[in-house]
């Protein structure tokens, strides 16, 4: 819902609009006026109000017919309509509801009642908008999951078909087998991210806190990414504080946080650049882990949403675009009582910082 909800008032009497405007003056709504039913319908072709206040007794095209036409249109039928009527007979009110009206208010309009009914309809509209956003998000997520799974599946299929060729050289078989293993691991990583996030969100995952040497955990992660970094001629540097940094954490979950951040840094860093992993002891304040790259960086707008599910940063060809890694990092770090942030690197790139409290 917008910061300033938009309300369309449809009434053939301008004085009635003035009354409603006065009664809703302090609510901060954006009020718009249509003097008859035809103009109201024409207005809907260019604007999408959050609520419609619709007068019943209008010449030419009355409010009940306008309501029917709006509710018959799939693009408009979700807009809540409050019928404003001087009619009091139950049969007339039944006609309003049968036409698709969501609520009604009697004339003369009472200010408190009007504000309460408008607020009620705005809540319904907000719930509808939120649901539509979630449905669109789910649709986008399915597309991204299918897109990101298609590449490793295609690689597995092609490598398998090549292995089955009768004249394929035996000495080249290990390379194809390694290609299949790598693709399977990629798929497994995507599935693990989805499952772990689902558990974290539902609160069903119990973290196994142990005293862990954070520096050793980071060095282990760096070792696993050296081969991947070599393919882009990247240098992975470690700047670790002191020899040991003991922290209470779930080693498996937090190792996955480091892996995701390192993977992102390598993917988005240009060739012949470097990625730096730092740790620092803030004494009683806690500890931090920083991963700095020399990539395209993160814009100010993206900094506000990059840790949300299915949000992606700079779109790059041949790079997985499923926005789960950073969202998982945020959930996992917060489950440890910590915080993850991103800032600009100098002269270019991004620095992701994870803060963990000392327990």
Task: Explain the overall architecture.
By secondary structure, the chain is α/β, with parallel strands linked by helices. The chain has helices at 14-23, 37-44, 63-72, 90-98, 111-163, 173-202, 214-231, 251-267, 300-303, 325-335; strands spanning 6-10, 30-34, 51-55, 81-85, 103-106, 210-213, 235-239, 246-249, 274-281, 287-292, 339-344, 350-356. The chain starts with 5 loop residues before the first strand and ends with a strand.
Name given to the CATH homologous superfamily of the largest domain: Histidine kinase-like ATPase, C-terminal domain
Tell me the major beta sheet: 5 strands, parallel
What is the count of distinct domains? 3
Pairing-aware structural class of the strands and helices?
alpha/beta
- What percent strand? 15-25%
- Number of beta-strand segments: 12
Residue share in helix: 40-55%
Distance between the termini: 40 Å
What gross morphology would you assign?
Answer: elongated
- Count helical runs: 10
**What is the element string, with H for helices and E for strands?**
EHEHEHEHEHHEHEEHEEHHEE
CATH architecture of the largest domain: 2-Layer Sandwich
List low-confidence stretches.
311-322
Mean pLDDT level: 85
What is the C-alpha radius of gyration, as a whole number of Å? 29 Å
How do the strands of the widest beta sheet line up side by side?
2-1-3-4-5
CATH topology grouping of the largest domain? Heat Shock Protein 90
The CATH class assignment of the largest domain is: Alpha Beta
